[in-house]
Specification:
- The complex is a heterodimer of chains A (205) and B (206).
- With 205 residues, chain A is an alpha/beta fold.
- Chain A has a domain of 140 residues: Beta Polymerase, domain 2, CATH 3.30.460.80.
- In chain A, the strands form 2 sheets. In chain A, strands 1-2-5-4-3 form a 5-stranded mixed sheet. Chain A has a two-stranded parallel ribbon with strand order 6-7.
- The longest helix of chain A has 12 residues.
- The N and C termini of chain A lie far apart (64 Å).
- Chain B is an alpha/beta fold and 206 residues long.
- Chain B has a domain of 141 residues: Rossmann fold, CATH 3.40.50.12280.
- In chain B, 33% of the residues lie in helices and 9% in strands.
- Chain B has 6 helices and 4 strands, in the order H-E-H-E-H-E-H-E-H-H.
- In chain B, strand 3, helix 4 and strand 4 form a beta-alpha-beta unit.
- In chain B, helix 1 runs antiparallel to helix 5 and helix 2 packs across helix 5.
- Classes of the chains: A alpha/beta (205), B alpha/beta (206).
- Chains A and B meet through helix 4 of A and helix 3 and helix 6 of B.
Chain lengths: 205, 206
């Protein structure tokens, strides 16, 4: 068992649920309310230093009584240690957890994928949109157990909705976040972006 | 439409016969040119694209059949080769690529997934690209070997040689789409997307 679990329990008390070991990996359950604090503690405490968020995903079990789990894989690159943190949610209740994007910027797309596939809402995520399915996808969350394998709509309706999607919407300036980061860019890169592909300044300049 | 135009007979040798011969000659010249210089637009999404690359490379080399230049721009392509599965998210993309290709144009559906959806009978996958764009040749296989794709290309050659400039049937003309944007009527799409094989016991809930 990873000693981090005992240290977590000493710090956060009842907010830390059971810890167990599976295939050599340590799994620790954390209450939803304490998640952000516990993650920040795991990242910043000198003895822990879990500085790398490997993956964020979710699991829903076929057993309807079992809760839906949001899973965080943590890795300490310096200490070469792994930890798996799970948060249990009621699949028929409120699927909301705090976003860890303020701690690990790389959680952005991982949480978007979890939202897209499971419908878990990450509170505080800067840009929580679908990432794999197109943004107008209306059939629900495909990896939930109540989602039929072929989707909810007929094939003709699925084809119609897919053809109605704009294939270029996913490659907008907004998607690439260039517009947001533009002010922080160095001057020469700003100049190159302003010239565009043709290497010419627009007439209005 | 009848291929022979009504004219007055002036001698023992019918001018209709000569005109038909002339039309055949024109057809032969045009179709040979088209068939022997097909420029493929590869649309590779999965493992079929690996076999497609093998077909394009020196061992199998479909340049021998006039597909010398792969056009990675749809504006300079004659035949769209969809190699691999097509998710719904790519459906508007392949439709746009097909629309951008100049006439005359043909489509080869390479592999089980492009032709029928294959093993991916699920919420994310188009069940056969013929629900999105018209297909001329289906190449079966998972993935097809390069010989299979070459055979499909030769079948397409055969099909092109059988066409005629003088048919009024608007075979290669695009049919205008209704406001739904579907190429086939909805009930036909549902029918050809019916589950088959080992997945018949799965049901749509709504």
């Amino acid at each position: 068992m990873n000693p981090t679990v005992d240290a977590l329990r000493a710090t956060f008390g009842n907010a830390i649920g059971r810890g167990l070991e599976s295939c050599g990996d340590t799994i620790v359950y954390v209450a939803r309310e304490a998640l952000l604090d516990a993650m920040a503690w795991l990242r910043d405490t000198p003895q822990q230093r879990y500085d790398y968020l490997v993956d964020v995903t979710a699991v829903e079990y076929r057993d309807r009584e079992r809760p839906l789990e949001v899973v965080y894989h943590l890795r300490s690159l310096a200490r070469r240690a792994d930890l798996r943190v799970k948060v249990e949610l009621d699949p028929r209740g409120d699927l909301t957890v705090d976003s860890v994007v303020p701690l690990w910027r790389g959680a952005d797309w991982l949480e978007r994928e979890t939202y897209d596939m499971f419908g878990v809402t990450f509170r505080g995520h800067p840009d929580l949109r679908r990432i794999l399915m197109w943004e107008t996808y209306a059939e629900g969350y495909p990896l939930r157990k109540d989602f039929p394998l072929r989707g909810r709509f007929s094939r003709a309706e699925q084809v119609r909705q897919a053809l109605g999607a704009n294939p270029e919407a996913h490659y907008s300036m907004e998607e690439l976040s260039i517009a947001e980061a533009y002010d922080e860019l160095p001057a020469d890169m700003k100049e190159r972006l302003r010239r565009g592909e043709r290497g010419q300044l627009p007439d209005s300049e | 439409m009848k291929r022979v135009i009504e004219t007055k007979e002036v001698s023992g040798q019918s001018p209709n016969y000569l005109l038909a011969k002339f039309q055949d000659l024109v057809d032969w010249a045009v179709n040979s040119s088209r068939a022997n210089s097909l420029w493929p637009m590869p649309f590779g999404t999965a493992c079929c694209a690996i076999e497609f690359m093998a077909t394009a490379a020196s061992r199998y080399d479909f340049a021998r059949f006039g597909m010398e230049r792969q056009a990675f721009s749809p504006r300079q392509a004659d035949v769209l080769i969809c190699a691999g599965r097509l998710p719904f998210k790519l459906a508007p993309v392949i439709r746009r690529i097909y629309d951008q290709m100049p006439q005359p144009k043909w489509v080869i559906s390479m592999g089980a997934c492009a032709s029928t959806g294959g093993i991916f009978d699920n919420y994310a996958m188009v069940q056969g690209i013929d629900t999105i764009v018209p297909v001329d040749v289906y190449v079966p296989g998972c993935p097809p070997r390069p010989e299979g794709l070459l055979y499909g290309v030769l079948l397409l050659h055969k099909k092109i040689r059988g066409e005629s400039l003088f048919d009024r049937v608007p075979r290669r003309d695009e049919q205008p789409l209704d406001e739904r944007g579907l190429r086939l009527p909805p009930e036909q799409i549902d029918e050809i997307s019916e589950p088959f094989g080992n997945s018949v016991h799965q049901f749509r809930s709504a």
